[in-house]
Amino acid sequence: MVAALPAPVQRYFLHAIAPETPLATSVKLKMQGQFRLAQDKPWLPMQAQEILTPKGFVWKAVIGRGFQFKGADYYFNNSGRMQFKMWGLIPIVNVDSEDIHRSAIGRLAAEFIWLPSALLPSMGTTWKVLDDNTIQASLQIDGELVTLTLVIDADGKVLQIFLPRWGDRTENKTWAYIPFGSKCEAELYESGFTIPDKTSAGWWFGTNRYNEFFQATIERAEFS
After folding, report:
1. Helix (H, G, I), strand (E, B) or coil at 48
2. CA 86 to mean position of chain CA atoms
3. How far is the C-alpha of 175 from the C-alpha of 170, rounded, in Å?
4. Cα–Cα distance between 211 and 38 in angstroms, integer?
5. Which of 24, 200, 201 is nearest to 115 (CA)?
6. pLDDT at 44 over 90
7. How far is it, in rounded angstroms, from Cα 92 to Cα 79?
8. For residue 220, what is the enclosing H or E element?
9. Does the predicted model carry a pTM greater than 0.90?
10. pLDDT-derived band of residue 27, with 50, 70 and 90 as boundaries?
11. Residue 200: HSE in the Cβ half-sphere, 13 Å Cα cutoff
12. Residue 159 phi, psi dihedral angles, 5° rounding
């Protein structure tokens, strides 16, 4: 399935998916880490579970200590939504719009590093090589063209990913495509898949405006 791809792309896939591994169509993740609502806000403890498929995701999280936010982000069938409540009771975030849908598509594409089978050419992804350690995937998700760039090492391990993602982290809060990315510091091997484990993510990736808001370690990954 990857024999016709350029050598650096083959290197990524042969590292991420061991030969003869049954190709997963979903992964269930359990993670813990830290989350912050803005760059000037404190980091809060986070525990979350996620189901990720080529068509969408559901991310359920508990953020904070005594003052807790509970809720979920999801995207499926060209529809995205964010719903969070204080202590699971008092609504504080409930958004559903075209902008949220488009932003969620970017998040879905970025998280395919946790489900590498979703990036195979058989899923409609086309690949090109920028240099020996930088590869770029182009894919369509519900009509939205996404360009995802991966920085890999000599073994094919993912070090960074980045893409233009629709968001409102601009000075005047207007929506635009913003550099978004993630750094990957460790790996998890499970059921023939090797995926990034210790990750951090933020807006304005690769610029002096970088705003990191997410840090997580994968505690468990179940592929099916």
Report:
1. strand
2. 25
3. 7
4. 8
5. 24
6. yes
7. 20
8. strand 211-223
9. yes
10. very high
11. 10
12. -105, -40
Phi (first) and psi of residue 22, to 5 degrees: -60, 135
- Residue 38 tokens, joined: 């803005």
Structure confidence at residue 85 (pLDDT): 87
| pLDDT number for residue 91 | 73
How far apart are alpha carbons 33 and 180 in whole angstroms? 19
Scanning the structure block, which residue is given the tokens 């200590």? 65
Q: What mean pLDDT is predicted for residues 194-208?
A: 97
**Burial class of residue 71 in the structure, from the number of CB atoms within 10 Å of its CB (0-12 exposed, 13-18 middle, 19+ buried):** buried
In the prediction, which pLDDT does 37 show? 85
Res 105 pLDDT > 80: yes
Assign 3-state DSSP to the chain and report helix, strand, coil percentages, each to 5.
15, 50, 35
Q: Measured between alpha carbons, how far is 156 from 150 in angstroms, rounded to an integer?
A: 10
Give the integer Cα–Cα distance in Å for 118 and 200. 21
- Length of the chain measured in residues: 224
Check if the beta carbon of residue 77 is closer than 8 Å to that of residue 55.
Answer: yes
Whether pLDDT at 123 is above 80: yes
Mean pLDDT of 128-134: 98
The first and second tokens of residue 107, run together, are: 């998040």
Asked if residues 162 and 180 have their Cβ atoms less than 8 Å apart, the reply is: yes
pLDDT at 135 over 90: yes
